[in-house]
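May I ask for a single protein's sequence together with how it folds?
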Amino acid sequence: MRRLLTLGFVFLASPSWAQRTELALLAGYTTSGNIEQTAPTIRDLEINGAFTWGLQAGHFFSSKLGAEVSWARQESALALSTSSGSADLFEVNVGQLHGNAVYRFGGEEARFDPFVFAGLGATFFAAPDLESETKFSWALGAGLKWFPARKVGARLQARYNPTQLNDSSSDFCDPFGFCQGSLKQFELMGGLSFRF
């Protein structure tokens, strides 16, 4: 076991591994997302747009291809609009956990590193007095990393991340028995990026 741990530390400390692992701390904004198929008297049913924060950790297996895990959290509310007005029905926290495949156009030592990614995962809905729910979600995105220093830089990314609700019994999709479908949101985030 000691030999295995020693070998692991040597491998992690090697220069070839060092420039291939990245961590990003991000913050930004996620747009509101309309829930489809509402009743005729309902103008809009949506998760409000809100501040979003998260982190991403990834590893590149070659100079161009890699994989990453991303987590994002948004504190929002489910809002209902009719011809007579609008109101927040209840607060909702939306969390997303995705595994992404990443392609970068720069390389291990690039100062400017544009990238694209696609991923699959889950969206977690939690609200006071309601049972939490987990739904399938996916994402497509693109961004740019800028490394003015070798190991510390900035990351800016945009992501389209729809969640498949498809459940007429869901409290988040179906609070009054009239909707089902998907939640389509866009996210813009930026923050610090670190290479190890």
Q: What stands out?
A: The radius of gyration is 20 Å. DSSP finds two helices and twelve strands in the chain. Confidence is low (pLDDT under 50) at residues 7-18.
